Amino acid sequence: MTYAAPATLEDALSLMREGAGPAIAGGTDLYPALGERPAPARLLDLTGIAALRGVAEGPEGWRIGALTTWAEIAAHPFPPAFDGLRAAARMVGSVQIQNAGTIGGNLCTASPAADGVPPLLTLDAEVEIAGAEGSRRLPLSEFLTGPRRTALRPGELLVALHIPPPPKGAAGAFVKLGARAHLVISIAMAAALVAPGAGGRIGAARVAVGACSPVAARLTGLEAALAGAEPGALHNPALAAPHLGPLAPIDDVRADAGYRRAAAAEIARRALREAAAGAGLLP
Questions:
Q1: What are the E-state strand segments in 151-263?
Q2: Count of alpha carbons within 13 Å of 21, Cβ hemisphere only?
Q3: Which residue, of 111, 204, 208, 278, is most buried by count of CB atoms within 10 Å of its CB?
């Protein structure tokens, strides 16, 4: 095996142009995904690139470097709108995985059950991509194109996520359903962000569901129905069921499609209620 560990993004992109790869940003998904196949002949380890690590806040929001670990995200003092992302970070595998696995690596693996994706969708996250022709930015919803597929072009690397300032007073939440509490791939999961509006009503609501479609999806119909609604609407057990059109759950060893759909409706409502409570709209 040829192993390269560049110290700068420029060196990494140069090695990519020379055919180095695959690129790893923590490596926690690489070997499990190989199964019985041999390891790659060439490997590009990005974890030594300091410029791709860390969280920075500025006038335009937050920048999260692609090599920022889940443990770092869970511990960072984000505002309450990021509570869903921090909760998801604490559910990514084991503590060992959270210390090594990175947000960029997780996104590039592009699993339909990636825990970090639904909360990032509710935060309107964009990805920053670098390549030989310069950098470009895409909404996360356009970066993830299908199971194990992304919009990365040959020779490109994901370098950061950008998150704009959330609505004033917003709080987030994340709810994951699995066969056990920890170290489990999701049957279904939901993230929500709720912001207060005038007169104690819901000013804005965002909700995304993962593990129930090829790519995690925002429930935009539900979001529109909740804008301006009384918070008590979140107690309605049938709240989300009419708005699950963006989902396409499948039957697999963890659950059948019907169960996933019913579970998605319930955990989306639970996530919304938790976010509303964080925003001061529910006790």
A1: 157-163, 171-177, 188-196, 202-210, 217-218
A2: 14
A3: 208
CB 282 within 8 A of CB 236: no
- Between the CA of residue 68 and those of 100, 217, 236, what are the distances in Å? 9, 24, 38
- Alpha-carbon distance of 65 to 128, in angstroms, equals 9
Overall pTM surpassing 0.70 (yes/no)? yes
Report the Cα 104 to chain-centroid distance in Å: 10
CA–CA gap between residue 53 and residue 77 (Å, rounded): 16
Strand order in the sheet with 171-177: 171-177, 188-196, 202-210, 217-218
Q: What stretch of H or E contains 24? A: strand 23-24
Assess contact for 140 and 127: CB atoms under 8 A.
yes
pLDDT 10s digits, 34-58: 888 888 888 999 999 999 999 999 9
Q: What sign has the CA pseudo-torsion 240, 241, 246, 249? A: positive
